[in-house]
Every structure is written in C-alpha cells, then in structure tokens.
Amino acid sequence: HASAAMPKAAAAPPAAAPQAPEVTLDAATYYQQVKRVLEPEQFREFSANIKKLNAGQQSVEETLEKVREIFGEHRPFLFAQLQKLIRQAEEEARRQSGGDGGDPGY
C-alpha cells in the first residue's frame, strides 16, 4: 500500500505551476492594468514617478512611497505587483552588470 501513495506525492509539485505566470509579470501588462484602474490624473502621477525611477532621479523607496499614496489603501494588489516588478528589474540589472552595482538605468 505504501507504493500506491507514491504517485500522489509525485503529482503534488505541478500544483505550484499556476503561480509561475504571476512571478514573470511584465511591465507593459502591469502598466495597462494600472491605466485601467486609476483616474487619468493619478495615472499621470504614477507614470511621472516611474520615469523618475527609471532615470535614476528617484530612489526605489521614494518611488514606492509616492506610488502607495497614489494607489491608496484600496489597491494593495497593484502596489504588491509594482514591488515585485521592481525587484525583478533590480535582479535583472544585477545579472547584467555582473553584480557590481553599476548604473541602474542600463
């Protein structure tokens, strides 16, 4: 009977697979989602903050603080996704720069 339980245990890992697409959230899709949810003025503010971050004129912490105010408390999912995207971008930048903390924009 012990061997009959084995296939069930082996079948468990694929259950985690649906989470994979969420991990590789892309910026363009996220941007469209934010644009649909926010008022036009809020979206302009959001975009301005992201541009400053990308240009190296604003820190990640400062950007997240300002974006959190724009989103408000009733949109935590958008804020969490932005944090994830920024972490992904930072990891990608570290990989490309060889981990020497080079210019964040390139």
Q: TL;DR?
A:
This protein is mainly alpha-helical and 106 residues long. The protein has helices at residues 2-11, 20-23, 27-37, 40-54, 60-71, 76-97. The chain contains six helices and no strands.
Describe this structure in words.
The chain has 106 residues and is mainly alpha-helical. The chain is built from six helices and no strands. Mean pLDDT is 79; it is low at 2-23.
Features of this protein?
mainly alpha
Q: Care to count the β-strands?
A: 0
User: In percent, how much strand structure appears in the residues?
Assistant: under 5%
Uncertain residue segments: 2-23
Write the H/E string, N to C. Answer: HHHHHH
Look at the structure and give the mean pLDDT: 79
Spatial shape: globular
Instruction: Characterize the largest beta sheet: strand count, sense, and whether it forms a barrel.
Output: none
Radius of gyration, in angstroms, nearest whole number = 19 Å
Number of contiguous helices = 6
Class of secondary structure makeup: mainly alpha
The termini sit apart by 58 Å
Helix content: 55-70%
Layout: helices, strands, pairs:
Blueprint lengths: L1 H10 L8 H4 L3 H11 L2 H15 L5 H12 L4 H22 L9
Helix pairs in contact: 3-6, 4-5, 5-6
